[in-house]
Amino acid sequence: MNHNRWNLLPPAPEGIIGTAELPLLVLQVLYHRGITDATQIKPFLAGDRRLATDPFCLPDIQPAMSRIYRALLSGENIAVYGDFDADGVTATALLVQGLSALGGKIVPYIPHRQSEGHGLTTFVLEELRQKGISLVITVDCGITSNLEVSKARRKGLDIIITDHHTPLFELPPAVAIVDPKLNNHSVSGSELAGVGVAFKLLQALYQSLGKEEQLEPLTDLVAIGTIADMSPLTGENRYLVKEGIKLINTSPRLGLSEMMAQANIEPGRLDADKIAWVIAPCLNSIGRLAHASAGYELLLTELPQEACRLAKWALEKNAERQQLTAETYARAREQVLAQGVTELLVASDAEYPIGVAGLVASRLAEEFYRPAIVVRKGDKVSNASCRSIPEFNIIEALKQNSALLEQFGGHSQAAGFTVSTGNLSALLEHLTRLADSQFKGLDLRPHLDIDVQVNLPDLGGGVFNILQMLAPFGRGNPSPVFLSRRVEVIDCHTMGKAGDHLKMKLKQGGTVWDGVAFRAGECRNEVSSHMDIVYNLEADDWNGSRRLRLNILDFTPSGN
What we know:
Number of strands: 18
Oligomer: single chain
Structural class: alpha/beta
Distance between the termini: 24 Å
Strand content: 15-25%
CATH architecture of the domain at 55-217: Alpha-Beta Complex
Helix content: 25-40%
Radius of gyration: 24 Å
Largest sheet: 5 strands, parallel
Shape: globular
Number of helices: 18
């Protein structure tokens, strides 16, 4: 367990507290999810259409619609050009399914991670043009493909970009660019995933035709892609994800039904966590180790035998990915420690598999709480994945060094780049200096945001059921975090085959709770008779029974 800085968030103003018939601690949690007015409480808890935004507020939506209508009416061949991660695959499936239902002649294209990389490539666009494609619509990519779009347009190929990544200083010369982050466009859709942006484009098309209700069967894809891309589960994302999970639990598409059955997910019990820890990793693993088109086929197949085969293969690929990640992480970690832990962690090797580089970088960033870059070093060109911490915006750092890069893109906390190997050392040196200057004087430890301090007896009376109304939980809407001080520890012992975890029995104010601190077995000697604990409240389903327990995130001996 890495002990954290504890950040007890400020209490909600009395104006909110006095206007709703909810427990005080629930109101505090809502306030920290951005609910600053009592009128927002019911829409947030319901997670219904009141959270939806107008698709016509997105930039370039009108020229995008006009060009698509022209292609549909004249029977043009349209390509949907996606990405190889779960967000890109679900976005590709969504747009193909949605445009095909409008009578479109649609061809999907998903690049290969190892041989093509992220974004548009000129030779693929030229191949599509020669096959009779006259319009390409990107999903989850394209915003940084300036050169590729320029060359395609000169040859008569029209391109519409739908993306959610940060644009460069210069934009591609596309027919339309539907990206909520375009020119700092101030709309609530700025936090949409790539699949969410594609959905809003379809929504505009379907609304104008009076067919919006026909989009409901596509919300499952939006939910998976949004959770997989770790987009905030607030605002419209909350509504779309909630609707998508409801759809999967009531009438899942064939491929998802097979995947859940083989992963032992009980029908009707899927939630955001199971998407994040099972469904999304399986789809991502296909693109990491093979061609992501198999994930696309799994989502759209209507053949039971094919769905069974692809679901089984996806789970096998996920297990293979887990093993490869563990092996690569061990090598990268050893390299980082041998070099000495600096403000910017770099692991570079010609043998690092690029398909798991991002996962390895993420683990390094999490363990050492430093931005991390994992590089697959080539003779002429090197590729890298980056993961960062809130104190360092990695995409802005790459922007500042764009002259050294062949290609780059991503978000503030996750990015990737391609660089000439001759420029690699200079790039890493510049990024390290930038990290050094930004971290000067900072206490670089992860912090835990705590919603409210409570006593354990405060958690009774149906509080857990009310808190579940805040689900689905994820980035932007995390599971509520509580702090309780001077809790008596009446029992504590290790659990798990290797004693990796701690199981406690805790008492306060006449109530007794079970608590589990995962991956904290080595901290057994830090447990004292009275502890301050930070935790989530969760349900433990075991042998057909359900009991509430505390999921302990951090602890420290209580002061006198």
